[in-house]
């Protein structure tokens, strides 16, 4: 084969841009999740590429592009066979291999966002390997490797289905099996907002991805040697940008009308939704078709996020299911409507009838079914063996600390406390009779008729806060002050290491709850707290009881008993 310098450079440049998308995904996922999981998110985005690369070299590339059958390529460790039948004109094997490797890594990294903040790191490494090893390569063979969908004329130019929908379906199944984050849904089943910690980082991730998408879609022409390829790449670039921009505008206006204000994070997601949607047909539709696809994705991402969050109750912290799964499928199907016949059969709206639309629908359904079937088996196997989900205590503390021994990804920067807690599993506490008795003896004498005010200070695990608040409300405590603190008692902290060096800090995250009581018997408060906090393990907490001389309400000037009453 005679190699073309222009085509080779174009493919290698595209591979570099698609690789840099890993940084964009890492920033988006980190920004849309909580600070206590930032290191874990970044580690996952690094490792899915590093795990996927050797596995794709060993088996994935051969399965995807081998000249085997219509359903499966061949097993070719280390890419040793002849692939002349599939190589683009003028492009060397290893240039094409690295180009396809970075696409494989993109599909795997989509899943981490939907399953963020509660997945074991070991489990993540395993299912990420499974996606790169055989889930993505098999369906990729059907679409791009000369398989049965390619023979039917299925058109997915740069991977709306082959890359993004595969990742989105894996994300959907994983998030469903995994269950929502602690505190995501109340007892009434209604979702609670769990805000990401850094919108600036998320925005940077979106802009990186938008920039790199020109390589993702544009370089999928796998060449620039010739007038037709130059014209095709130019159209791809224009359509890619147009669809993303219109999706973003539509979502901004839609959320503005729907919620009263334009939703920032949803609008960022819409940019990615438009990019995902146009990826299948960016070479096959004209700018009008690209505009309609972008508009459709702008509406779809908002409705889809709301459906999964409120109706299906599937917790997806970054919206990966909607952006990649739903919009990937939508864009692929809409190619069957708007294809002009330049690089594929004509779509329904351009006189091609229902044939291409039917093939696009068949490709989406069959690829989704294959992906869902295999990834479900992988997740169930992981769940039954090493476990898929992190412990509730580790989840509340943050996966940075529990999974990696990383105290914080933002050393030296003050972070807002996480106020989303749930109820941990607990043992049954010994039932102690609650005596309706006055406060303990005073440490100093008071007048016989002096009112009694007592401060009850409770230091406990963050995971116990919601249960404690509920119990206190039931016995009539209507006010409390909660402070996030650090400390240690009998636990003496936990040994942590950074790059093999012991970290001297041994403080553990706790919450301090302060209450001043007068009407409710102090002993009742103490015993209720004991029964509520008891698990039988070290770290259940401590209760401190002290006298209070007086209480003053600043706004009204009321003192004593009156200042403690709710209005």
Topology:
Elements: H1 5-31, H2 38-65, H3 93-114, H4 121-144, H5 148-152, H6 160-178, H7 199-218, H8 227-259, H9 264-278, H10 287-311, H11 320-338, H12 355-384, H13 392-397, H14 399-404, E1 454-460, H15 465-474, E2 481-487, E3 496-498, E4 501-503, E5 508-517, H16 522-533, E6 542-547
Antiparallel strand pairs: 1-5, 1-6, 2-5, 3-4
Helix pairs in contact: 1-2, 1-3, 1-7, 2-3, 2-4, 3-4, 3-6, 4-6, 4-12, 6-11, 6-12, 7-8, 7-9, 8-9, 8-10, 9-10, 9-11, 10-11, 11-12, 15-16
Walkthrough of the structure:
By secondary structure, this protein is α+β, with helices and mostly antiparallel strands. Helices cover 53% and strands 6% of the residues. The chain has helices at residues 5-31, 38-65, 93-114, 121-144, 148-152, 160-178, 199-218, 227-259, 264-278, 287-311, 320-338, 355-384, 392-397, 399-404, 465-474, 522-533; strands spanning 454-460, 481-487, 496-498, 501-503, 508-517, 542-547. It has a four-stranded antiparallel beta sheet, with helices on one face. Strand 3 (496-498) and strand 4 (501-503) form a beta hairpin. Helix 1 packs parallel to helix 3 and helix 4 (121-144) packs antiparallel against helix 12. The longest helix has 33 residues, at 227-259.
């Amino acid at each position: 084969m005679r190699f073309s310098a222009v085509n080779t450079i174009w493919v290698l440049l595209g591979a570099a841009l698609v690789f840099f998308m890993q940084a964009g995904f890492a920033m988006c996922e980190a920004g849309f999740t909580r600070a206590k999981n930032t290191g874990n998110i970044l580690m996952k985005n690094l490792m899915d590429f590093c795990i996927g690369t050797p596995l794709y070299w060993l088996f994935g590339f051969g399965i995807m592009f081998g000249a085997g059958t219509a359903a499966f390529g061949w097993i070719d460790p280390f890419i040793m066979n002849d692939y002349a039948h599939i190589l683009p004109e003028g492009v060397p094997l290893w240039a094409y291999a690295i180009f396809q490797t970075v696409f494989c890594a993109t599909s795997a990294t989509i899943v981490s966002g939907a399953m963020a903040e509660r997945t074991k790191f070991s489990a993540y490494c395993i299912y990420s390997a499974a996606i790169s090893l055989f889930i993505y390569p098999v369906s990729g063979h059907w679409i791009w490797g000369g398989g049965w969908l390619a023979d039917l004329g299925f058109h997915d130019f740069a991977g709306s289905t082959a890359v993004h929908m595969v990742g989105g379906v894996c994300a959907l199944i994983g998030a469903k099996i995994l269950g929502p984050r602690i505190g995501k849904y109340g007892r009434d089943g209604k979702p609670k907002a769990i805000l990401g910690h850094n919108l600036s980082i998320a925005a940077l991730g979106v802009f990186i991805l938008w920039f790199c998408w020109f390589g993702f879609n544009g370089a999928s022409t796998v060449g620039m040697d010739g007038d037709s390829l130059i014209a095709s790449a130019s159209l791809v670039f224009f359509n890619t940008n147009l669809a993303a921009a219109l999706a973003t505008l539509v979502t901004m206006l839609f959320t503005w009308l729907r919620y009263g204000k334009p939703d920032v994070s949803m609008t960022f997601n819409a940019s990615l939704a438009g990019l995902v949607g146009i990826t299948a047909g960016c070479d096959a539709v004209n700018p009008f078709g690209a505009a309609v696809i972008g508009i459709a994705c702008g509406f779809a991402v908002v409705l889809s996020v709301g459906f999964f969050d409120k109706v299906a109750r599937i917790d997806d912290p970054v919206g990966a299911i909607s952006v990649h799964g739903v919009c990937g499928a939508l864009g692929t199907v809409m190619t069957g409507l708007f294809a002009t016949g330049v690089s594929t059969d004509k779509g329904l709206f351009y006189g091609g009838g229902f044939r291409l639309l039917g093939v696009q629908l068949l490709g989406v359904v069959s690829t989704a079914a294959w992906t869902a079937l295999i990834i479900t088996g992988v997740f169930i196997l992981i769940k039954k063996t090493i476990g898929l989900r992190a412990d509730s205590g580790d989840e509340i503390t943050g996966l940075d600390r529990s999974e990696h021994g990383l105290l914080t990804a933002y050393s030296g920067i003050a972070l807002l406390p996480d106020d989303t807690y749930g109820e941990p599993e607990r043992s049954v506490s010994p039932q102690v009779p609650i005596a309706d008795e006055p406060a303990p003896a005073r440490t100093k004498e008071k007048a016989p008729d002096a009112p009694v005010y007592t401060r009850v200070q409770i230091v406990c695990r963050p995971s116990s806060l919601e249960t404690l608040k509920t119990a206190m409300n039931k016995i009539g405590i209507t006010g409390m002050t909660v402070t996030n603190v650090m400390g240690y008692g009998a636990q003496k902290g936990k040994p942590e290491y950074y790059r093999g060096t012991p970290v001297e800090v041994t403080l553990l995250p706790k919450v301090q709850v302060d209450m001043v009581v007068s009407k409710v018997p102090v002993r009742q408060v103490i015993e209720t707290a004991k029964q509520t906090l008891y698990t039988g393990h070290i770290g259940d907490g401590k209760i401190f009881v002290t006298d209070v001389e007086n209480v003053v309400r600043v706004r009204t000037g009321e003192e004593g008993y009156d200042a403690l009453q709710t209005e």
